[in-house]
């Protein structure tokens, strides 16, 4: 149980520091600690990430950073696709599913490294989701609604398929599609992750996946504590250093996942 506490705290801290990436580490952590398969680990990871993300979103809401309508729209678009992703996950062979998961991890790592180096740029003037300078709220248009729905659909499918929170999709997408500040992007992403993650957990349970009560509760509570710690540390740490460290850790874990799938 001590190992579950430590791993849960690590996952929550990563989620709090980056606004993404918690689920991408939670699944392999549970697979290694408990010897579970990816479909077994996914709902527990999602539960922990969703709980931690809800805490972070609440903090962002208190600071008036969360664009809750955008988060709710992405979640409404993503939950049906989470069910579809869960259905596909039960049809794929375990090595192939693990390989897809490792590839997703490598994409996340590469994107984090590029962002740390300043490679990620955006033009807020061309973004379809823009803030109204008078009200401070997002201006809704068909283009904005379609863009956010697309982000939600991709996030939901990957949530159901791989058991990830989807923040690694939402955060860069909102950076490109909106002129929100980075703090608002992270806060909005956390709310969407919490909502879509709950849908992913329900989809997994609907397909008959059983969630062990005690290990799951320990992992979830530790992740929530880690989230609070991560949100405090983010004010003291350099964002590029955080992103580079996260990228390096993600590459290492992806290598372990591939080795276990094909060579272990």
Automatic annotation (TrEMBL):
Alphabetically ordered keywords of this record: Cell membrane, Membrane, Transmembrane, Transmembrane helix
InterPro entries, per database record: TM_pro_TauE-like, TSUP/Inactive_protease-like
Domain of life: Bacteria
Subcellular location field: Cell membrane; Membrane
Membrane topology (UniProt): Multi-pass membrane protein
Transmembrane parts of this sequence: 36-58, 70-92, 143-171, 183-206, 212-230, 242-262
Family according to the record: Belongs to the 4-toluene sulfonate uptake permease (TSUP) (TC 2.A.102) family.
Annotated protein name in UniProt: Probable membrane transporter protein
Organism classification: Bacteria, Pseudomonadati, Pseudomonadota, Betaproteobacteria, Neisseriales
